[in-house]
Amino acid sequence: MLQRPWCTRNTLSSKPPFALACSCNTAEDFSKILKAKGCSDPEKLVPELEKEVERRQHVHEERRRHQLYVAEEYSRFHPKIFTLQSSFLDPRFCEMVSHARKPDCTADDLKAYMKGLQMRMYSFPVFTPSFCQMFVEELKHYETSSIPKFQAASMSKFAIDLGVLGFDQFLSDLRTAYLAPLVKVLYPDWGGDQLDTHKAFIAQYKEGRNLDTSYHFDNSEVTLNVSLNETFDDGDLYFGAMRGEESSFHTGYSHQLGRGILHRGQQMHGAFPIMEGERYNLIVWLRSSRIRNQLCPMCNEKPKIKAVENGFGDGFTLDDNTV
Ligand SMILES: [Fe+2]
């Protein structure tokens, strides 16, 4: 029997199915799972999967060490942007969020502030152009600094982990004060008002860089993707159906400076390569332990988890609420 190519990010690959090796998995039964998925020689893949589980389970400690190092050694270019201020936000976004905070607000009430795309995707202005400019300047300053860069599990080689760079509080404030009220109205079934963690990074695209922009789903309940600059050509996003759904649905989305698109993490999507210039996008994976504790969004199994110190980990919670 021919070995089946694995569908890891909905693209065919000869690599082992690393979605199985997510940090919620204790790697007890890989052989059995692989067999059930049609793998003819699971024993070949098990050691690699076990190694990946081990790496993912310890990446949080490594990340924390790196975060402390950056806090000590990195000199910030725009120190003021590390604390969220309402002046960084587009006034229309602030107005929409104050509407969303009203107890009886419905998705229809927010229509005037956003472009309702298909499949429950929404696009709206988030940041002012001047904030975007400062943000990108800070990112370039960090990139060209001598600080060794941290590569998080599951992130592209060219992604910048914003928690490591020092934006943890900024992003927690953005999540709790602004994004949570919107998600409560727009996605009550995907975390609603119980978004308790996030993972945020900058996706950076440059011509000629070997980026993984293939069709995939996110490790999030809801994702916000905001464009921070305009100096690129092409690079549009494309969206399809929800993961696992049989549907021919597809649609495109073009970036605009400071504007964000909000979508469900399990909605399949990808990005076309850029033809010229460079692109910086803020990606915020919003997570709700209430949802993911039932079923891990990556491996589709009931998570078996270990406590993570100093950080959100992958957003699961133990009984005592440690994540
Ligand atoms: Fe994504």
UniProtKB/TrEMBL annotation:
Matches recorded under InterPro entries: Oxoglu/Fe-dep_dioxygenase_dom, Pro_4_hyd_alph
Gene Ontology MF annotations: dioxygenase activity; iron ion binding; L-ascorbic acid binding; oxidoreductase activity, acting on paired donors, with incorporation or reduction of molecular oxygen
Pfam families according to UniProt: OGFOD2-like
Domain Fe2OG dioxygenase: from-to ranges: 196-288
Keyword field: Dioxygenase, Iron, Metal-binding, Oxidoreductase, Vitamin C
Cofactor(s), by name: L-ascorbate
Name the UniProt record assigns to this protein: Putative 2-oxoglutarate and iron-dependent oxygenase domain-containing protein 2 isoform X5
Lineage: Eukaryota, Metazoa, Ecdysozoa, Arthropoda, Crustacea
